[in-house]
Amino acid sequence: MRHFLEVDDLSVDELRRVLQLSGDLVPPKVLEGQGVALIFEKPSGRTRNSMEMAIVQLGGHPMYIKPEELGIDSRETAEDVVRVMAGYHAVLAARVFDHDRLERMAATDAVPIINLLSDVAHPMQALADLLTIEQEIGLADVGRVAYVGDANNVWRSLAIGCSMLGIDTAVASPPDHGPTEMDTDHVLALGGALLVTSDPQEAVNGADVIYTDVWTSMGQESQKEERLDAFERFRVDSTLMADASERGIFMHCLPAHRGEEVTNEVIESSRSKVFLQAHNRMHSARGLLSWLVGEAMEG
């Protein structure tokens, strides 16, 4: 039984294979006649649409489930939910507040579990990001991937994926918003170099990919004013983009708060690949599912 809670749940070869399968526009119907449960504690238009369409393209039937329909850990334990769902579905994918809930689900080994987002990790976004970098620059050719802003779950999964593939990364964050020592050790242990700085220019200098995310994520609304002040000089604008390599591209997982973490000029520029990233959420989801219910099961 294989699960996908973080990018390095895959080996390097498996990660490369998933990205390869993501480019297969006529995939085998590995989910023919099967269901995939999509449990959403937190809403997301991109995640729901990309997952549902990926499942359909593989011949399966997606089932979108709202939190009140299950009452996980209030009406029924997470473990019991998974054991029940395993009788209906080939895969269970969940977007949750607490990563521990996903780990408990996976520990049942009743059905493959996919992390659609947690407070700790966003590996499905990282797959789409890596696919986008491969298409635009080439994973073997990219120099540095620079992340500017909050070292959150998006940063963590992207840095892990890059490090697995030998890609150097940099992260520039305000004090108290940078990566934890545990996360930096994790990323460094996987092989890629990591620069941690409070200077956006230092992180972006010569980078091939400049990435940012919202300064205030879902569930942090009460901190918005404090965060706006803390992140003011971490906005990605044309001046900062000028420090990137000539082929440098801009990436953002969306939704974007234009005028906060990125200027409208940058996100609408020819260097911006944010909508390709969003579309690649579907292709990379299809690649992961193709591997998870096809090759991984056969192995």
Quickly describe the structure.
With 299 residues, the protein is of the alpha/beta class.
Any overview of this molecule?
The chain is α/β, with parallel strands linked by helices and 299 residues long. The protein has two domains: 7-122 and 281-298, 3-Layer(aba) Sandwich (Rossmann fold); 125-277, Aspartate/ornithine carbamoyltransferase (Rossmann fold), CATH 3.40.50.1370. It has helices at residues 12-22, 45-57, 67-70, 78-85, 99-107, 123-136, 153-164, 181-189, 200-204, 224-230, 238-241, 264-267, 274-298; strands spanning 35-40, 61-65, 89-95, 113-117, 144-148, 168-172, 194-197, 209-212, 249-252. The strands form two sheets. A five-stranded parallel β-sheet has the order 7-6-5-8-9. Strands 2-1-3-4 form a four-stranded parallel β-sheet, with helices on both faces. Helix 7 links the parallel strand 5 and strand 6 (168-172). 49% of the residues are buried.
CATH architecture of the largest domain: 3-Layer(aba) Sandwich
What is the ordering of alpha helices and beta strands? HEHEHHEHEHEHEHEHEHHEHH
- Major sheet: size, sense and barrel closure? 5 strands, parallel
The class by helix and strand makeup works out as alpha/beta
In CATH terms, the superfamily of the largest domain is Aspartate/ornithine carbamoyltransferase
* CATH fold descriptor of the largest domain: Rossmann fold
Helix content: 40-55%
The poorly predicted ranges are: none
Described by the principal axes of the CA atoms, the overall outline is globular
Q: Write down the Rg.
A: 19 Å
What is the CATH domain class of the largest domain? Answer: Alpha Beta
